[in-house]
């Protein structure tokens, strides 16, 4: 695995996945793969708590999805998943101290689940 270091966080990724960083987010995808994993981070003046994550997730929770608690690397939070317009979405709201990570994975609905194990394994390496 190789690593991508952001200003405030880092993630390990499989060698056959590519990374593109821009001012808004980090995009990780496999050439010819099903979808893309995107991550962005924000630093708060105080410790990020679950209420902060829920406030940030209000639009995604409006889909009627139930958040599932997760611990990924040095972060905790929740994941939601849903279908919208023939696209499968997995969304994570994560926190560690004053840092919040917003991560999404999406792909065409017909490919849902194809890259889940690799995405999960990469997200498990998140660290500050």
List keywords for this structure.
two-stranded antiparallel sheet, single chain, 128 residues, 3 helices, Protein Transport Mog1p, Chain A, mainly beta
Give your account of this protein's structure.
The structure is a single chain. With 128 residues, this protein is mainly beta. The protein has a single domain (2-123), classed as Mog1/PsbP, alpha/beta/alpha sandwich (Protein Transport Mog1p, Chain A), CATH 3.40.1000. The protein contains three helices and nine strands; from the N terminus they run E-E-E-E-E-H-H-E-E-E-E-H. It has helices spanning 50-56, 58-61, 116-123, and strands at 2-5, 10-13, 18-21, 26-29, 35-43, 68-72, 75-84, 87-96, 99-108. The strands form two sheets. A seven-stranded antiparallel beta sheet has the order 3-4-5-9-8-7-6, sandwiched between helices. Strands 1-2 form a two-stranded antiparallel sheet. A hairpin with a 5-residue loop joins strand 4 and strand 5. The protein is globular, with a radius of gyration of 14 Å.
